Amino acid sequence: MRSLVRHLALFVVASLLLAGCSAVRLGYGNADSLMRWWIDQYVDLSPDQDLLLRERLAGFLAWHRKTQLPDYVLVLRQGQQLVDGRPTVGDMLNLGDGIIRRARSLSDRATPDIADFVAGLSPAQIARMAGRFTEKNVDYAKEARLAEDEDAQRQARYKRLLERTEYWFGDFSEAQAASLRQLVAGQSAGSQFWYEERLRRQREWLDLLRLVERERPPRDKAIQLLRDYAARFDLPADSARLSQAVALRRAAAELAVAIHALTTSAQRAHARHKLDDLIHDFTELSRTD
C-alpha cells in the first residue's frame, strides 16, 4: 500500500482491467476481504480499524459496482476499437489518460472515508508502513535491476512487456520477440526515474500521515490534505522532471503502437476475445446486488 488514496483506486482499476476473467469474478466477490488483508499488511489493523474499513468498503464497493463497472465497459470497448484498427500514439495516450481519470474518480469517492481511517493511525502503525515500503522497494529495485546498467534495466523491461503482451495477444514467435527486444533497446528504460517517483510518493504520503497524527487537523482539513496529495500523485511538480515524465509516457505510447503493428490477425482476435470476456464479466457484475 503506497497510499490509501490513489493506490486503493489503482488496486481496483488495475486488478479488474488486467486480471483474467475468472479472476475478475473471484476477486471482485472477495474485494472487501482482499483490500482489508492488503491494508493490514502495512498497518496491522486493530479490531476497531478493521470494523471501520469493513463498513466503509461495503458502501464504496456497492457504489463502484453500480457506477464504475459499466463505465469500465466503455474503456474495454475503446480497447477493442484500438485492437481492430490502426492505433496512433495519440490514441494510446488518450486511453491511458482515461484510465487515470477513472482512478481519480475512485480516489475522490474514497477520500472522506480514508480521512476517517488515517485519523486513527498510531505512530507505530505509520512506522510499520514505512518499513513495508522499504521492503517492497528492495523487491522492486531487484526486479527492475536498478543496481545494474541501462542494458540490464532494458532487459528487465523487455521481460515484463513480453509477459503482458503475450497475456493479451497470445504467444509471440521468436521473430516477434526479437523485434520487441529491439524496440525496447531503442528507448530509455526509465526505470530509475519511475523508481524515484515511487519514492517521492511514498515520502509525501508518510509526511502526510505524520502530520495528521501529530496535529490532528479537523476532518475537512484532512480531506483537503488527501486531495492535494492525490492531485500531485501522477506527475512530479518539478518542471524538469515533469518534462521527463511526459516524454517517458509518450515513448511508452509509441512502443504500444509498435507492438500492435507486430501482431497477426489471429493474435488480435485473441485480444478481442479476452476483452469480450471482460466486458461480459463487468456487465454481469454491475447487475449483481
Summarize the structure in words.
- The protein is mainly alpha-helical.
- It has one domain (6-286).
- It contains 12 helices and no strands.
- Residues 1-21 have low confidence and may be disordered.
Please give a quick description of this structure:
The chain is mostly helical and 289 residues long. The chain has helices at 6-18, 21-29, 31-43, 47-84, 89-118, 123-144, 150-169, 174-185, 191-215, 219-231, 239-262, 265-286.
Brief descriptors of the model:
289 residues, mainly alpha, 12 helices
How would a textbook summarize the main sheet? none
Distance between the amino and carboxyl termini: 28 Å
Low-confidence stretches: 1-21
Work out the radius of gyration. 20 Å
Topology of helices and strands:
Layout: H1 6-18, H2 21-29, H3 31-43, H4 47-84, H5 89-118, H6 123-144, H7 150-169, H8 174-185, H9 191-215, H10 219-231, H11 239-262, H12 265-286
Helix pairs in contact: 1-5, 2-12, 3-4, 4-5, 4-12, 5-10, 5-11, 6-9, 7-8, 8-11, 9-10
